[in-house]
Structures are given as structure tokens and as C-alpha cells.
Amino acid sequence: MTAQNRARFFEIWKKAKENLPMEGEEALFAEIMLEHREHHPLFDLGEAAMNIDFAGRRQTNPFLHTSLHAVVEQQLQAHEPIEVEQALLSVIARGDTRHDAVHQIGGILAQVLYDAVTRNKPIDEADYLLKVRALIY
């Protein structure tokens, strides 16, 4: 599964670099990948990056990072849950960039997902919303 997912990222990256038309989720992922210049060298590796163990290297996993970004962006586009949009606006109003606000929300999402995986339990949506609401003030 990981190899298939990463292969899809590399396909999107190739299209983005060649400025080929994309739509929907593919376009969203391309936009996020292009925004994160720090990950470009890894995306350029293509298949050579298929088996990199980011956890073992204690590095940010650019595939996971991009995916978390996409989830937050999709929540914002859908206005669901509405607390995500409220948190984004609140963080921006305090002086952070939109990108940084998405990172803060994505960090909460990452923690909630990590907790679910490590405890072998379903995602705790109530915990996610509680933590996202803490950004609203």
C-alpha cells in the first residue's frame, strides 16, 4: 500500500513539474507539494524514495505531511467540521499565515491519528474537535 501511495505522489509531482492540467484531489495535492519547497528534492528522487523510512530517520514524512494538508484543505472546502474553518480564521487573525494555520490544524489531526493507531482504536472525532476548538479565541 505504501509503495502504491508513494507512486501516486510521484505521478502527481511529475505532472506538476511539467505543468500538466490536473483537477480535483490531484490538483490539490500538486498545489500542496509545490508549496513545500523543502520536500522538492525528495519528490525529485521518484522511485529511489519509495522505501525511505522517515520515522527511523526522525524526519518529516513529506507524503504524510502533504496528506494531512490535503485533509485540512478538504475540511475547509466542505466547511465540515465548521470548527476547522473557525480555527483557521482565528489563527490568521492572531497574525499567523494561512499556511501556518493549516499546519497547526494538521498537527492536531496528526496527533489524533497517531493516538488512534497506537491505541488500536477508532479516530476520536470528539478529541479532534476539542483540540481544534482550543485554537478558536
The low-confidence runs, each spanning 5 or more residues with pLDDT under 50, are none
Seen as an oligomer or otherwise, the chain set is single chain
**Mean of all residue-level pLDDT scores:** 95
Number of strands: 0
What's the Cα radius of gyration?
A: 16 Å
Main structural class: mainly alpha
Shape: globular
Number of helices: 8
Distance from N terminus to C terminus (CA atoms, Å) equals 40 Å
What composes the largest sheet?
Answer: none
β-strand amount:
under 5%
Q: H/E element string?
A: HHHHHHHH
Q: Helical percent range?
A: over 70%
SSE layout and pairings?
Blueprint: H1 2-17, H2 24-35, H3 40-45, H4 54-57, H5 62-78, H6 82-93, H7 98-119, H8 125-133
Task: Supply the key terms.
137 residues; mainly alpha
Describe this structure as you would to a colleague.
The chain is mainly alpha-helical and 137 residues long. It contains eight helices and no strands. α2 crosses α5 and α6 packs across α7.
Gist of the model:
The protein is mostly helical. It has helices at about 1-15, 25-35, 40-45, 55, 60-80, 80-95, 100-120, 125-135.
